[in-house]
Amino acid sequence: MSEPSIFFSDVNERQGSFLRRTFVFGGFSGLGILALVGRLAQLQIVQAQEYATLSSQNQFNFRMVPPPRGVIKDRNGVVIAGNRPSFRVLVVRDETKDLDQTLDLLGQLLPDTMDRRRAIIREVNAASKFNPVPVKSDLTWEEFAKVNQYAPELPGVMADMNEARYYPFGGAFAHVIGYVAKVSDRDVQAIRDKGQQPPALLFNPSFRIGRQGIEKALDQDLRGQAGGNRVEVDARGRVVAEDIGGSRPAVQGQEVILTLDADIQNRALEVFGEESGSCVVMDVRNGDILAMVSSPSFDPNLFVSGIPSKAYRALADYERRPLLDKALGGTFAPGSTFKPVVGLAAMKRGWDPSRRVVCNGSFFLGRRFACLGRHGAQDLRGAIKNSCNVYFMTIATEFGPDAIAETARDLGFGQTFDIGLTGQKAGLVPDREWRRRNPVRGDGKWYPGETPSYGIGQGALNVNALQLAVYTSRIANGRQAVMPRLIKSIGGVEQKAGTPFGELPYDPQMLKVLRDGMEAVTDVGGTGFRNSQLGLGAVRMAGKTGTAQAQNYGAGSRKGAGRPWAQKDHNLFIAYAPTDNPRYAVSVIVQHGGLGGGTAGAPRAREVMKVALLKDPDIRARIEHAGFEAPEDAGVREAEARGEPIDAPAVDVAAPPPEVTQ
Which residues form the Penicillin-binding protein transpeptidase domain (predicted)? Predict the structure, then answer.
C-alpha cells in the first residue's frame, strides 16, 4: 500500500505558504531580539548604578561592633570600673555545617565549654545571621593559641581579642558601682513596655547592659555608640577581607567620676572582715560621699561573662546577704544613736538642756524600763555622754512622738536622697498619724507605752546607714541641711547635689549642745572612749554609740556570748571629726555585732575616719607640724590612775531589761 501524498496543483501556491511561515517566525524572532537588546540597554545603561550598588551590598556585610563602655573613676582619678583586653572564642552559626559536631570538637580544646553547652546552643540559635556569638571569654594565651591552631578544622569558629568590663577593686565597690551582664528578654520587654523600640545594639551577643548601682543608673551615658566593620564575604557569607575605609569605629561611653575615695572605700570594707554591716563617710561641708560600703561583698567580675548558677546560689543563700546593699537597702533600729534627735526635739519646744533628770536605773510607765546604769542627776550633755535611757525616755514622754518624728525628718530620716541610685529604702519614722494608718489588731491609737522605746531609738523606728551619715553631717555642720552627693561629673560636666542645701530650722546653739555631748562620748568616761581614740594629737573625733535589739529577750541576758549570730544585737556608731572644725562624718552599722555600740562600731569608724583625715592635706599638715604624743594609751592610763571609768558606767544587772539601748 503506497503512502499518501500531497500535491499542489500550482507551484506558486506552495511557495506562498513557505513565505508566510518565514515571515511569522522571523517577526517573532525579531521582536524577541529587540526586547532582549532593550532590556540589556536598560540594565547596563539606565540601571547600571543601581545594580552596581546591590552587587556591592551582596559582596560586603556590615557587622555591628559594641562600643567600649565608659570608665568610672573615683574623685582622685583612680579607675574603679574600666575595660581590659580579653581573648575570646566565637561561633558563627551560618558558617558551621553541624553545630553539635563543632561544639564537640571545641569541647576537646576547651573542656569547660561543655558545661555551658545548652546555653551556648540557645544563644547561637537566637543570634542574627552571620553574627558571631561568644562561647568563652578570658582565654589564656595557651587556649587562644590552641583554638587558632585548629581553626581550619573548626568551621564557623574564630578567636579574637575584645575589651571586657573589669572591676580592679573586686568587692570594694560592688554595691555602689554594680556590674554589667548579658541582656535578657526582660530587659528588652521592659523597653517595649515603655512604648519604645529596643536598639539593635541590645541584640548583639557581645553587648553588656548595666545591672545595679551606677552601671545601671548611668547605663545610657556609659553605653557609647556602636560602630561596625565592613567585611567582604564569599557566596556562603564567610569573611574573606575587611574594608577598612568602609568601617566605622565605635565611640566609647562617657567617663563618670564619683565623689568616692578608693583608699577610704577599701579601708571601710577591710575593717569589717567577715562581719555583716555597712559604712558611709561624708564630707559635712558639701555632702560628698567619700565611702559607701556594704559587707560582706561579692566580686562583680564574676557577673560579666555570666556567673555559674552554683556560685550565684551560694551568694544568694548566705545568711549575711552579700548581694544586698545594706548601706541603702538595709534598715535597722538606730538605738542610742537616735538620742540626740530626741534632745533636739525637746530643746526646740522649750526644754532647758541644763535641766537635770535623776536616773536611778529605771523608768516607769505602766511597767519598768531599765537603764544600763545608775547615772544620778544629769543634764542633756551628760545624758548623751552616758547614753542614759531614763533621761531620754523622760523627755520623749513629755513631748510625744509627733515632736520626735518632725525633728527626725528635719535631720534626714524617713526619706530617700537624690544621689543617682535606686534601691534606697526610706525606713520608717513613726508618729500618731502613721499609727492611725497602720493599726495593731485594728487599734490605730498610739499608746503612751510605745513612747519610751521611741525615745531611745527602738520600736517601729528604722533607718539606714546613709541616713545616719546625713544626720551626723547636719549636726556637725550646725547650720545647713547637708544633702549627699555621689556623682561628681559625667562626660566632664560637673554634677551638683540633687537637692540644694537649706538652713536647718534650729538655733545653732542647740546643735552645739548635741556636739558637746557627742564630744564627751569619746572623752574619758564616755561610752565610746576606749575604741574611738584616733591617736592624731589634737585632732579628735566625737561620736555616739548605739545598740539595737534584734529580738525581745524577756528576762534573759542580752550578752552576745554563746548566742547564734542572728540573735545578737546590732551595733552602731556615728562620728564626726575634727571636733573643733568638723569636716567628715561616718556612720557604721555592724549587723548582729553584739551589745555595746563602742565595741564593734567605734573601732571600725575610727580606722575609716583616720584614713579620711590623713588624706586631707590641711589636716595632715596640722598633725605633722603640731608635735604631739599619741594620747590613746596615755589617756587610758591617766584615767585609770584617777579611778575614772574608761568606757560605760557601771551596769546594773539586778534586773535585765526587755528593751535597752546604749
Answer: 277-610
